[in-house]
Amino acid sequence: MRVNVQTPNFVADAKLIEFVEKRLSKLELFYDRIISARVYLKVIKPREKENKSVEILLSMPGEDIMIKKEARTFEEGTDLAASSLERQLKKRKQKQRTYS
């Protein structure tokens, strides 16, 4: 799976990008037909506590999955989004087993 990380309005360090790629690579354990992941890391309203936005678009055969989470840090937002994606991928895989 290819992971494309985009960070508008700031420059992300290598540790953050590596963390995101490593966390999303675990999604392949739940669903092996993922083609790519586009990740958008954004800072919204710098004065608020939960001002980090993480958007992930998973491309796969059939319908794509889009998830958006806000948190205090990008790492926390990535974990929340990945956990949500894991649940959705498990459901999708279970539906495929039911129909086949």
From TrEMBL:
Domain of life: Bacteria
Cross-referenced Gene3D superfamilies: Ribosome hibernation promotion factor-like (3.30.160.100)
SUPFAM superfamilies (UniProt xref): Ribosome binding protein Y (YfiA homologue)
CDD domains from the UniProt entry: RaiA
InterPro entries membership: RHF-like, RHF/RaiA
Protein name: Ribosomal subunit interface protein
Source organism phylogeny: Bacteria, Pseudomonadati, Bacteroidota, Flavobacteriia, Flavobacteriales
